[in-house]
Specification:
It is a single chain. Helices cover 40% and strands 25% of the residues. It contains 19 helices and 22 strands. The strands form five sheets. The protein has a five-stranded antiparallel sheet with strand order 2-1-5-4-3. Strands 7-6-10-9-8 form a five-stranded antiparallel sheet. A five-stranded mixed sheet has the order 12-14-15-17-16. The longest helix is centred in the middle third of the chain and has 46 residues, at 243-288. The structure holds adenosine-5'-triphosphate and magnesium ion. Adenosine-5'-triphosphate (ATP) binds at residues 379, 383-384, 387, 426, 428-431, 435, 439, 444-447, 452-458, 481.
Amino acid sequence: MKSLVSVEDTYAVLFERNPHPMIVYAPTGGDILAVNEAAVSTYGYSHEQFLRMNIRDISAPEELPRLEAHISRQRPSYEYSGVWRHVRSNGSIIAVEVNSSELPYSGRPARLISVNDVSRGVLAEEALRQSDANFRTLIRSAPLAIVTLDRNGLVQMWNPAAEHLFGWREAEVLHRPLLIVPENDIDEHHLLLARAAGGDPVVGIERTRRRKDGTGVLVSISVAALRDERGSTTGLIATYMEVGTWRTLEEQFRHAQKMESVGRLAGGVAHDFNNLLTVILGYGHMLRAMDTLDASVSSSVAEIVDAAERAADLTRQLLVFSRKQVLQPEVLTLDSIVRRMGRLLRRLIGEDIELVTVIPQSTHPVRVDPAQIEQVIANLVVNSRDAMPGGGRLTIEISDVELDETCVSRRMDFQPGKYVMLAVTDTGTGMDQAVQERIFEPFFTTKELGKGTGLGLAMVYGIIKQSGGDVWVYSEPGTGTTFKVYLPAVEAPGLSEAGAPELIPISGGSETILLVEDEEKVRMLAAGILKTAGYHVFQARTGDEALLILRQRPDEIHLLLTDAVLPMVSGEQLAKRAVEIRPGIRILFMSGYTDTAVVANGVITEGNVFLQKPFTPEILLRKTREALKR
Ligand SMILES: Nc1ncnc2c1ncn2[C@@H]1O[C@H](COP(=O)(O)OP(=O)(O)OP(=O)(O)O)[C@@H](O)[C@H]1O
Ligand SMILES: [Mg+2]
């Protein structure tokens, strides 16, 4: 009969049928003593499994310490224990609200917990918090200045890129209206915010905004509304990109392209030009050396040679600029070059200018062609002198510098790393922006006709770029100018002292030379000079002809003197085969420019002797002797 059902059975039914999972465990050890149906279905363990388990087995591992502390604590007979993370039999995590009460179970003290699964709400909230954290990390680490504003237009978040761009720290701007908006733009600013808040995002408008130090910065601004799940606007997010950065890169790119094409043109012209000049100079020198000429003829010859030498100079400068110059680099320190130039520099700058040098005891070595670096320094110094007609101070400074990402990020094809900086500073006229933009262009000069060719800085640029460095300029009209040359530091033990190269005396000889040159006039000239000096000379126009001669007379030929640029078989291929046919044969390359494998990248491979066109008879004989001596 129903009325006879005991009180205990009623409670048993309340326990068994309760829709909330319920678990009874022993507070001393934690062993589970009883569970209800809802617990079985919620956690996924069977009754039997549960009864072999401990209360700790359903706790998420990361909450065990909290659980231990909780169990060992003296507790009231009934309490709300808060939200916990439990693990189900399949490993998934549920968030549960736990109520716990003391009760005797089979005569022993026990605790009953009643569990309310609140996973849906809690876990979703956690996911939300996580995505919010991700979002914050993203904003904090973004290279773009990002600012969020609340509904009233007050700053809510101000990321590090914004601190960097505008100069205000986040703490200085939080909960304040945007300080970067200039007075006269405030109205438009409010209009833009209202527009974005109304659902019409602002994309990439360019405006000037204010930095903390008062200077303006041109930025591209985008603004969009932030909304809650119901779609109502909770605030705004604004991004600022500095326009100047892109402009600068774009300009540099265009500049580099222009320099490249002018350079290619110059290189091509210089090749042919050098062959012609070699002939003019060669015969001119030979004529000049004759003592049978009468005075008027010999002075005319001197004029011809003079003019040809100046023309040779000009083509050389063009080649330098087009980075087709053959560099003969050594590892050395810049201060040795500057010290060696000391007297020359003094003479270049004259009396009215004070020369200051700031050169530390030792700087990192660099790999450069010393003669070319002298050119660089001389050009910069002469420019500074010209900019100080009324006198002034000229400072030459050398120092080791380490350029990091931020320093080089605004320069193209320039890597962060260790550099040696050479700075030439003057207190002269300075340059305005328009002049600064063009100074490295060949033939750009502001000097009057006949005073400057406009090649000085073009050469500087070419040499430094070819050496793996870069040139930066800072100038202020009326105040002065600084040119900074950066050259990559090398970690190299073998330092060569910058000194005058050893001069090999000009002498003839009786060895046999195979001369290969496709330009007939140049070949005739060189053959003439060599024969006059006592050498035996075989001539060939092409590589194939030369190989034929080598095969026919394998033992008689001591030196292969070949143009590096030949049709069909190149000078380099020819040299390789010549060495196979006649091991021990000496090689001397000549060339007017460097687009060949012999002088890969314009840097002559160490151990090779190289004869630069145009050459004079003396230089030809000296280089020939040098090659034979190796
Ligand atoms: N230190 C400087 N101060 C002011 N202006 C300079 C300075 N250096 C260069 N310039 C400007 O840059 C221009 C180009 O310089 P660059 O050395 O290429 O040619 P140049 O000196 O005019 O002629 P060249 O060097 O061929 O004799 C100069 O005409 C001058 O206007
Ligand atoms: Mg100059």
